[in-house]
Design brief:
211 residues, alpha+beta, 2 domains, 6-stranded mixed β-sheet, two-stranded antiparallel sheet, 2 helices, 18% helix, 22% strand
């Protein structure tokens, strides 16, 4: 049988463990565990506030010389009611340069390499605004809407965080996944589009090939 001390320890454990888990969840949701961002992108597409501390200083090169000018594209997470799944927090940044379909000679090889001249900040927002742009169906005849979305791009000189331009593109490109499952009756499965790679390249061409 448990002694009186053992029982008290057990009761404390039952009380404290859930409280610790709740505290950890709150810390995670509020960004307490977020480290230094990889770039200075504003945390929202309508903000002009760039980060003062980030991982790129010393790895960027002046925006000059012959073209092409190496760039990196960072997707800045924007959590919306129709786009709340996943582990990334609002304002988190992810290097998506390799997923953009941009010409290989425009892309900097990575955030750890020198010679990065341009930073492009990508923001997806307006998810579900307007009509569906398509529907996907898998082999099990599960269907899902392809939601409309808008992508805002802000272009900066990497060495100085000087803003160089801004533009919007609609999400028009998508690939239907092989498997789709319903998350719940209230939040059905849906597919999110991406910008057309050719349209994105055309809008970034004046920056990447200037000079």
């Amino acid at each position: 049988m448990l002694s009186g001390v053992g029982r008290r320890v057990g009761v404390l454990a039952i009380v404290l463990v859930p409280l610790c888990l709740i505290a950890l969840l709150i810390a995670w949701r509020t960004g307490a565990f977020q480290g230094t961002p990889p770039a200075f992108c504003p945390t929202a597409q309508d903000s002009d506030a760039t980060a003062e501390t980030y991982e790129l200083p010393g790895r960027a090169a002046p925006y000059r010389g012959g073209a092409p000018h190496p760039l990196l594209v960072f997707d800045v997470r924007q959590i919306e009611p129709r786009d709340s799944a996943g582990l990334r927090l609002d304002g988190d940044m992810e290097d998506v340069t390799g997923e953009t379909g941009l010409p290989p000679d425009w892309r900097a090889t990575g955030a750890t390499e020198p010679g990065i001249q341009l930073i492009v900040c990508q923001y997806r927002h307006g998810v579900g605004d307007g009509e569906e742009i398509g529907r996907c169906r898998n082999a099990l005849f599960t269907t899902a809407p392809v939601l409309a979305a808008t992508f805002t791009y802000r272009v900066y000189e990497a060495a100085t965080a000087k803003p160089l331009g801004r533009f919007d593109l609609p999400g028009t490109a998508y690939t239907c996944p092989e498997w789709m499952n319903r998350r719940s009756e209230q939040i059905p499965t849906y597919v999110l589009p991406k910008p057309d790679p050719a349209a994105l390249a055309e809008r970034l061409r004046p920056f990447a090939t200037a000079g």
